[in-house]
Amino acid sequence: MANQQLDARTYFRVGEGSTGEYAPQPLENEVPRAAGKGLDGIARAPEMTHHEHIMAVRSGDLGSLHSWELVTAMDGPGTRMTIFFAGCPLRCLYCHNPDTMHAHDGTPATADAVLERIKRYQTIFRVSKGGVTFSGGEPLMQPAFLAKLLRGAKEMGIHTAIDTSGFLGRNLSDEMLSNTDLVLLDVKSGLPDYYERTTGRKLQPTIDFGKRLSKAGVEIWGRFVLVPGLTDDPRNIEAAAEIMKGWSSLSRVEVLPFHQMARDKWESLGMEYQLKDVQPPSKEDTERVREIFRSHGLKTL
Fold first, then answer.
1. Which label site among 167, 171, 252, 268 has the fewest CB atoms less than 10 Å from its CB?
2. How far apart are CA 209 and CA 206, in angstroms?
3. Domain 64-296 CATH assignment equals 3.40.50.2300
4. Where is the Radical SAM core domain positioned along the sequence (predicted)?
5. 100 near 86, Cβ under 8 Å?
6. How far is 16 from 14, CA to CA, in rounded Å?
7. Which residues of 127-164 are buried (b: 16+ CB within 10 A; e: fewer)?
8. What would the pLDDT profile of 21-30 be if each residue is shown by its tens digit?
9. Cβ atoms within 10 Å of 200's Cβ, excluding its own
10. Mind listing the pLDDT tens digit for each residue in 40-87?
11. Cα–Cα distance between 221 and 186 in angstroms, integer?
12. Domain spans of the chain?
């Protein structure tokens, strides 16, 4: 049963709305601060004037990052270096990285420094059949920076993946698409109203992006987070399955049960956490939802 009091649209200031036309110029008004976290091993960007920052961002030489980590069996096949971008246009109620919502809270890093770090793991990626995953936040908020990283990784022969909501899918150029091997596409909800209450934004851009990826033959791993009272309405789940069923390049769906691991992060940031009283779904409920996706012919984990 949906809890109508849960609504991500309350996080947006008057005038921001939840329009699918939202297409910010990345970092134009959010130059990252000199201080940051989680980038050990990646050289910090040199000191720059505000103008130099803006020019470097526009060229893709400079980006705003939150952190990076090496993971196995997550964020794509094999052992992966997952790089978390700072900045996101969505305000998902269950976001487990709320500290990545604003680009100016990230750490400035150059594309060259990030690629130098990626290069260190070439052998690991080759042996494990892994690669690099660009996540966030939302990597497509920084398309010029992402484009340089995708191009550089592919020149090294490294498998590339993007973890995205697809809301800013139109920021992915054809060249970037050609350098992308896999997209982890989060379908937050299958019904437009549920999607807006979950994220504060529109669903249609995600649907359109999935169709574009399928037309280009780019592999998709669909993701759906099961949140009691928010995304668990059977009609919403059926609608999400119907959307993903239409993507010919979709190879699997991951149903991820909601957890409370991010609660302290929200509170430490002084942000209202609307899901503080929500209990994670049981294993049985999660498996029932997986069966709904399977009933649509989708390989589901």
1. 268
2. 5
3. no
4. 74-299
5. yes
6. 6
7. eeebbbbbbbbbbbbbbbbbbbbbbbbbeeebbbbbbb
8. 444 444 444 4
9. 21
10. 889 889 888 988 988 999 999 999 999 999 988 889 999 999 999 999
11. 8
12. 64-296
pLDDT surpassing 80 at residue 248: yes
Closest C-alpha to 105, from 84, 91, 82: 84
Which tokens hold the place of 1? 């049963």
Q: Which two tokens stand for residue 165?
A: 């909501």
Per-residue pLDDT tens over the stretch 172-201: 999 999 999 999 999 999 999 999 999 999
Q: Tens digits of per-residue pLDDT, 78-119? A: 999 999 999 999 999 999 989 999 888 899 999 999 999 999
In one-letter notation, the amino acid at residue 200 is: G
Q: Is the pLDDT confidence value at 158 over 70? A: yes
CA 248 to each of CA 168, 212, 237, 252, 261: distance values in angstroms, whole numbers, following the listed order: 21, 10, 19, 11, 34
Q: In this structure, are residues 180 and 218 in contact, taking their beta carbons and an 8 Å threshold?
A: yes
Give the pLDDT of residue 15: 41
Q: What DSSP string runs through 207-234? A: HHHHHHHHHHT-EEEEEEEE-TTTT--H
